[in-house]
Write a structure and sequence with these properties.
By secondary structure, the chain is an alpha+beta fold. Among the domains are: 107 residues, RRM (RNA recognition motif) domain (Alpha-Beta Plaits, 2-Layer Sandwich); 64 residues. Helices cover 50% and strands 11% of the residues. It has ten helices and eight strands. A hairpin with a 5-residue loop joins strand 5 and strand 6. The longest helix has 49 residues.
Amino acid sequence: MTDSKDGHVKVVLRRLPKYMTEHEVLEQISPLPEEVIGTYFHPANFSFDRCAYATLTVNFSEYCDSMMEFERRFDGYIFVDSRGNDSAAVVEAASNQNFAKCDRNRMKEDTRVGAILTDKYYLDFCKKLEEERAIPILTLEQQIRKLNQPDDARTQIDKMETPLVKYFFEKETGKRRDYDARRQRRDEKRAEKRDKVDKFEKHKNVLDILMKPSVPMASTSATTSKKDLKKEKPMTEKEKERWEKQDAKRKERNMIRKQKFLDEKKKKHEEREQDGPRVPRDKKKERLAKPPRPSPAKTVGEQQGEDWIKKLTDPKSAPMKKKHDSPPN
């Protein structure tokens, strides 16, 4: 964004040769008046071909006589570039009298230049390098003595551990920790389920005992099997007669069922023989021939053609009269 400053005036020196540089222009127009506070050079755009010209903008601090003298001196002045091209310059006031808020030279500078000198990590690195340099160098005898000294297990592990190895160790321990946590949660859930089942079984057993009817000890002997009773207590004559009657009825009932089953089987066999001889298993049954399909409906032309052929081939039918046959006398 631009801003206008009170009293400052911009003058433009146009139509300079296209190959002219800023150094050449300032060399030809020097010395500049004291009121000049800055200059800006615009090189020529070569895509304009013959109309390509360079431009110089001169900033004056105020409207003064030296500015008018500059206009009278260089308006129509012929400038020559390094390649011998000449052109008559034109001095005029700039159409845009606004000025930039910040300095262009300052804008071109990169603010990140020298920022590393104040960076915390860089300063720590430099300090570490200086400390390493301050460590005295061991002599050959001291180095041999240090190598011959046995290292404990901890120092050996420290030497083996690199950042990459530490990363993998931490990753593996994290996985194992997660696995142990999951396994512990799973065991806790199983223990809770087991406790619930045990409580339910205990409650169930208590209910069974409470709900069971009270039976005297003598009645428990009644629940024993009949075989045990037979072995323990001999049967009386009445019980023996009753048992023999029940056994005879059971045998008679079984004989009736068996005879009924045999009669039904014989009846089915006779019916199968009446139907025809039994086809062997390895021989397939012959399928009945399908009836012929009915012929499709005939058209009028087909029916007339069949009637015509029948009249010609049938001798019993009356002879057909032809056009050239003469009538009988």
